[in-house]
Amino acid sequence: MKYQHVLSAFAAEPWAMDRGKLAVIADFLAFKAAGGIVPAEEMAARITKKHDGEIARREGAVAVIPVHGVLAPKMDLMTEISGGTSYTGLMRAIHAALADPEIKAIVLDIDSPGGAVPGAQELGDEIRALRGGEKPIIAQVNHLAASAAYWIASQADEVVVSPSGRAGSIGVYTVHEDISAALEKAGVKRTYIAAGEYKVEGNETEPLAEDALAFIEERVRRSYDRFVGAVAAGRGVTVSRVEKDFGQGRVFFAEELIEKGMADRIGTLDETLARFGADQTPESVRKLRSANSARAEDAAYLADRMKAGEPVTIREFENGIRGLMGFSKSEAERAARLYFKIGQGEPDEGEAALMARVNEALAIAQSFPK
């Protein structure tokens, strides 16, 4: 029971964090409380990950500030064991980027389950006070902004969500654990000696009294009201709309976030950087993306024309069938000659097989909804 007081103090904090992540951290602390040992290499890896998360980087004229892992006011035991980012460090990084004359935009690269309530309001308020200037502050959900992380994201000039991203979990909670039975089993009898009627109220060695419960509930509700109020102000909506439409603790996918007004657009981090002149994509990759996009458009054009019963040219057919089937240029030309019966007698076995594939592809394409 060496670390039981740490576990109890952790549980009693007001948290704006995804419940699953909080459970993982609580399990780790419980493991430590029961005398479990974490190998030095594992702890070193966790600490390294935490320090890595503090480092901002520059992409062109854009400052990219990682908001990763558990969020806390300062780096402490919780961030050592779980990896994370401090509100203090984030505020300093944002201020530094705003003061740098070479920086034209700030992107918060967010992948976080949330964290502690203390500190979230101050950072969120500061971001909202600094937005709207010459240097836009963009919250890039890449790929999770839950609870306190969404609190922060909602205060930025713009919220962008990666296509597979999720955000939300607007809510606050805390836990009281009555460990009196566990202490008794371990042969421990703890006595608190205190001055002040409520000094040891809600302690973990006894059941939670009704008046203590009511007091804690009021604290949680107050934090929640501040959270909801901040989101409403950040997103430019009413508090009632946040409570009605923003999930009451649920997490939503990218398309849902756009529909609800919780985010502004769907896009990857690379796409966001490119919008601000910091495209780091290699030229060969850009060319490949462009070619694939053109083929997809050609395929869609062919399918739409044929569904409508409208004529297509040989070139449109060749380009469209390359997009539909992934044909090479020579295969597409052969398919077009067969389809339009240009200079062809009876097709041989290979040509008949090719035409069968083409007809199958066209039939599938024509079944797609517009």
UniProtKB/TrEMBL annotation:
Name assigned to this protein: Peptidase S49
Keywords for the protein's UniProt record, in alphabetical order: Hydrolase, Protease, Serine protease
Highest taxon in the source lineage: Bacteria
Any one GO biological process: proteolysis
Gene3D superfamilies: 2-enoyl-CoA Hydratase, Chain A, domain 1 (3.90.226.10), 6.20.330.10
InterPro entries: ClpP/crotonase-like_dom_sf (IPR029045), Peptidase_S49 (IPR002142), Protein_C (IPR033855)
Protein family according to the UniProt entry: Belongs to the peptidase S49 family.
Organism from which the protein derives: Devosia elaeis
Transmembrane segments: none
One Pfam family matching this protein: Peptidase_S49
Keyword Hydrolase: yes
GO MF term set: serine-type peptidase activity
Record-annotated Peptidase S49 domain positions: 133-275
Keyword Protease included in the entry's annotation: yes
